[in-house]
Amino acid sequence: MNKIRIAPSLLAADFGNLQRDVEMVNSSQAEWHHIDVMDGVFVPNISYGMPVIKNIAEHATKPLDVHLMIIEPDRYIKTFASLGANILTVHYEACPHLNRTIQAIKEEGMMAGVALNPHTSINLLADSIASIDLVCVMSVNPGYGGQKFIENTFSKVRDLKALIHEKKSKTLIEIDGGVNAENAKALVETGADVLVAGSFVFNSQDPLATISQIANIANV
Ligand code: DX5
Ligand code: ZN
Q1: Is 90 left (phi over 0), alpha (psi -120 to 50) or beta?
Q2: For ligand 1, which residues put their CB under 6 angstroms from it?
Q3: In the chain, how many domains are there?
Q4: What is the mean pLDDT of residues 112-141?
Q5: Ligand 1 pocket test target in 10, 64, 91, 176 with most atoms within 8 Å of CB
Q6: By residue range, what is the domain housing residue 199?
Q7: Which residues lie closer than 8 Å to 207 by C-beta, 6 or more apart?
Q8: pLDDT tens digits for 108-120?
Q9: Closest ligand, as measured to the CA of 46
Q10: Rounded to the nearest 5 degrees, what angle is found at the Cα of 23, between the Cα atoms of 202 and 38?
């Protein structure tokens, strides 16, 4: 089994104490900071933008995993690179020229991620998986934290793992939405490499301990 990476989603952080929460992640067993950008068009909600991310980047000591839930993400690839994004994930559903978008992200020195909405089949990535560094499998409908995990995610992860294997790719599988201590272990056993967790971490009594809890469960 792979060593699991935990990426706490700052969408569930206390925005009045963002520095404190970023520093909590710095000192935790998490590997990445997950940063959700929503435009109110691709998804119904609006989260935060460049000035906030600039502040996060100033305090973060771990890689920034930026998840763009926006239309026309190509317009902002250079901007996110200059803000310090290490992994830049775009939505399959928002990219009519996915191959070009992936190349543009890599040219800026970032890992290229592609996110799939719950209704989007992993088969659509058959011709591009070898060039994708990370697939973010949405296990909720994107737009909000705190939603219920969609169980069909397991079969998608299984199929995606098989596709990655078949194409001899090194693509990482990230699961985003509704991750908790109950489903973490099964997700890793099914093939997940990265678990994003927002409300389960930040709404807990002790977020630092909760990150350790998921990391320990998932790595057993
Ligand atoms: C959903 C976001 C997620 C979200 C996860 O649109 O992409 O990253 O913050 O939050 P939880 O873990 O609360 O489902
Ligand atoms: Zn996300």
Answers
A1: beta
A2: 9, 11-12, 34, 36, 67, 140, 142-147, 176-179, 196-200
A3: 1
A4: 98
A5: 176
A6: 5-218
A7: 8, 21, 24, 28, 201
A8: 999 999 999 999 9
A9: 1
A10: 55
